[in-house]
Amino acid sequence: MAEQKSIRLELEDIQGGVLRPRPTPYAAAYILLRIDDRKAGRELMRRATDLVSSAASLSSPAGDAWIRVAVTFQGLKALGVPQASLASFAPEFQQGMAARAPELGDIGESAPVHWETPLGTPDIHVVLVAVAPNAERLERVLERGRNAYQQLSGLEVIWRQECYALPTEKEHFGFKDGISHPAVEGSGIPGSNPQEQPFKAGEFVLGYRDETGGFPPMPEPEAFGRNGTYAVFRKLHQRAAMFRQYLRANSSTPQQEELLAAKMMGRWRSGAPLALSPDNDNPELGANPTRNNDFLYADDPLGLKTPAGSHIRRANPRDASVAGAVRLHRMIRRGTAYGPPLPDGVVEDDGADRGIMFVFVGSHIKRQFEFVQSEWVNDSTFIGGSSEKDPVSGANDGAGVFTVPRRPVRRRLQGLPRFVVTRGGEYCFIPGLRALRWLADLRE
Ligand code: HEM
Questions:
Q1: Closest CA to 375 of 395, 400, 399
Q2: 190: preceding bond cis by omega (within 30 degrees)
Q3: How far is the CA of 392 from the CAs of 150, 172, 266, 337, in angstroms?
Q4: Gap between the Cα atoms of 383 and 377, Å rounded
Q5: Phi, psi at residue 15, to the nearest 5°?
Q6: CB 119 within 8 A of CB 423
Q7: Which of 295, 337, 324 is closest to 312 using CA atoms?
Q8: What is the Cα–Cα distance from 324 to 242, expressed in whole angstroms?
Q9: Atom of ligand 1 nearest to the CA of 176
Q10: First to last CA, the chain
Q11: Atom number of ligand 1 nearest to Cα 181
């Protein structure tokens, strides 16, 4: 325990966007660049060291507006990173997200052949993410970003996605998001569940011990890998009208619709957890950051309050008895919504593209993100072996099943369609600040 307490994270070398939660409300932009000229790419990395603030400046006045810079495996190759270093990266990062499609359930309409161009192609090299509390501050941050890459010939902006908090500050299915966050030892940022012990820093930043007691595999050389981490971004289209239609078709009153939505998510749309408010919504609880994540599942082994198959109980079973060590599969999420909201009461699809730019941050793409996606979201072996998938974000195909435990008899919903379609994404590495300089200083 003494060792846990004394851990010192080199915050001044870790990109700020890694550890710090996004502001609420927020405006964000994702900009993808291709490097056509290695020297221009290296110059961008040099300029990025000024652009990116460190996790040490978390409490500065401008601390809620920032840019994060990440590089894909193809990007590292375009920058001319030596082969020995390239080979030291995690294999799934080297393969890239499109190659991992079968493991991720990106099949059928979510398969890479249907992804938005250029997502899933080797052209994505650098990912710039700008986040701010409003559009005006975002524009100022973006201007600094543009100054860094615009006058450099040999760099091409190939894709861009704007994201804005919806007026309701909910995601497109109508739920409050961004509630549950792990605490990271040494970061100074508290987690949101007082009953969850802080996580070893190595779960989220390379160069420190993780929950296994060892060190996560770190890319070489140390000057490059240390204080870096992996990130996953996924553009997830949400079929909001279809979600509403499904709730309506399987309920006889608006109250039942809300209860069914809550059973699928594990929280009422207000954010209030079923674990603490199983029968009725409690908007005050949902809005209270000191209470809305203060719960475990051990008192609800049958899932009578929070179904074992609900989105949040799958994605983080907390202390529920499941196969596997829950603390090895926790993640930092940095999702932001894109696209216009579907107006209240509308149940017909208006054709608009809306969804979440889902972002994972962690030291282990495979045992954190890929494991949760494949074993917990898209399978049910860990909770007893049925063929059900996550009713909200799972790869259902129209024949999906969702069980709501109830007394005297459980309810089993049939015919779940796919509410979330993958539009593309990529695996990235977020270098530490010294590592950005290491990239800038690479020579032929
Ligand atoms: C469009 C797709 C998705 C939507 C609409 C969605 C929505 C939500 C919402 C509303 C919450 C509850 C708020 C909170 O606890 O912060 C949540 C929690 C969470 N989601 Fe998702 N999510 C989506 C996809 C995913 C995916 C793909 C993953 C991982 C592979 C994931 C992992 C998690 C995790 C780990 C939590 C926190 C659970 C907890 O600690 O209780 N989500 N999500």
A1: 395
A2: no
A3: 40, 12, 10, 16
A4: 11
A5: -60, 135
A6: yes
A7: 295
A8: 33
A9: 10
A10: 46
A11: 40
Dist. CA 55–CA 188, nearest whole Å: 10
Mapping DSSP to helix (H, G, I), strand (E, B) and coil, where does residue 362 land?
strand
Residues with Cβ within 6 A of ligand 1? 171, 173, 175, 177-180, 236, 238, 265, 267, 311-312, 315-316, 331, 333, 355-356, 358, 372-373, 377, 392-393, 420
Tokens matching residue 4: 């846990």
* Nearest by Cα to 338 from 272, 440, 278, 425: 425
Measured CA angle at 425 (ends 317, 220), to 5 deg:
85
- Quick one: tokens of 426? 């990529």
The whole-number pLDDT of residue 151 equals: 85
| pLDDT tens per residue across span 42-95 | 999 999 999 998 998 766 656 788 999 999 999 999 999 999 999 999 999 999
DSSP letter (8 states) at residue 31: E
Question: Residue 230 in contact with residue 362, Cβ under 8 Å?
Answer: yes
* Strand ranges in 377-436 using DSSP code E only, listed in sequence order: 400-404, 411-416, 420-430
Q: How far out from the chain centre does Cα 441 lie?
A: 31
State which H helix or E strand residue 201 sits in: none
Q: pLDDT tens, 178-189?
A: 999 999 999 988
Q: Is the Cβ–Cβ distance between 420 and 238 less than 8 Å?
A: yes
CB contact at 8 A, 225 and 211: no
The first and second tokens of residue 340, run together, are 């216009």
Residues constituting the chain: 444
Q: What residues contact residue 351 under an 8 Å CB cut-off, 6+ apart? A: none
- What the block records as the tokens of 180 is 């549950």
Mean pLDDT of the chain: 94
According to DSSP, the residues that pair with 230 across neighbouring strands are 362, 429
Q: Where are the beta strands (DSSP E) in 165-272?
A: 229-238
Give the Cβ contact number of residue 223 at 10 Å: 13
Q: How confident is the model at residue 254 (pLDDT cuts 50, 70, 90)?
A: very high
